[in-house]
UniProtKB/TrEMBL annotation:
Domain Potassium channel: 65-133
Protein name per Swiss-Prot or TrEMBL: Potassium channel family protein
Transmembrane parts of this sequence: 46-71, 83-102, 108-129
SUPFAM superfamilies per UniProt: Voltage-gated potassium channels
One Pfam family here: Ion_trans_2
Signal peptide region: none
GO biological process: monoatomic ion transmembrane transport
Keywords assigned: Ion channel, Ion transport, Membrane, Transmembrane, Transmembrane helix, Transport
Amino acid sequence: MFIQIALGTALMLCSVLVSGLAFWGFEVLLVRHHDWLVKEPHRPKLALVLAVAALWVLGMVTAGVWIWALALWALGIFITIEASVYFSLVAFTTLGFGDILLPHQWRLLGGMAAANGLLNMGLLTAMLVEALRHIRLSQIEVKRRR
């Protein structure tokens, strides 16, 4: 049990770290293009920020799923990488089909993967909202100054 908790905690921290670094990278991207983003026309640029942020989030979720999948596969829990990715995706997104289960001695990892996915979804939703809010407020501020 303690090995599962330690391993699950390490995987959760790794996944959150990857998401944090990716968020930092996205923030750097926004800062670099800030002057262009706040110029008219605003709506197409907001749509572009939303699209890029959504793709960025998709990449972070994919990275989190692969972190779990590779760990489960390396532990020999699943024979194929496809089964490992499938289970990780179903657990990480908290979908929980239940058609593929972890062996009894590793079942705590399933709940930890789901908790990790839930945490990441919340963080990534906050990232989307914050990115759009920041750009929109900057656009409004620049417009007021004129």
